[in-house]
């Protein structure tokens, strides 16, 4: 690994006979490209955030609709349960009212006919 680092250092060092103006210009161009890439990255990040806002709003609205639907479904289930219980009570009341309670006795006339 140390060998690779030394090789990169040698490549990055300007040649002994290089024009200092060319070295400065190359570093300047490298800095400009670096700033340009950073600017493009920030623009992409900002555009991503801006595009994320409507998506988040849509998802929030969907969650709210789902919550309202769930709440309405639970309420409908409670109402159906109450109606079912009321119907069962009414059926019990009807069944109780159709039963005639009391005592009976068999008349002798009825026994002789058989």
From TrEMBL:
* Bias (Low complexity): 78-88
Biased-composition ranges for Basic and acidic residues?
104-114
Transmembrane stretches, start-end: 24-57
> Which intervals of the chain are annotated as region Disordered?
78-114
Sorted keywords for this record are: Membrane, Transmembrane, Transmembrane helix
Record keywords: Transmembrane helix included?
Answer: yes
Q: What is this protein called?
A: DUF2371 domain-containing protein
According to its UniProt entry, this protein's organism is Pseudidiomarina insulisalsae
């Amino acid at each position: 690994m140390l060998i690779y680092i030394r090789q990169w250092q040698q490549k990055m060092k300007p040649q002994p006979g290089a024009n200092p103006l060319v070295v400065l210009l190359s570093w300047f161009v490298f800095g400009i490209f670096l700033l340009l890439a950073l600017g493009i990255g920030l623009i992409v990040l900002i555009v991503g955030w801006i595009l994320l806002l409507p998506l988040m709003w849509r998802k929030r609205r969907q969650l709210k609709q789902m919550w309202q639907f769930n709440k309405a479904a639970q309420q409908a289930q409670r109402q159906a349960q109450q109606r079912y219980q009321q119907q069962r009570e009414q059926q019990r009341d009807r069944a109780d009212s159709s039963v005639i309670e009391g005592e009976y006795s068999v008349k002798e006339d009825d026994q002789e006919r058989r």
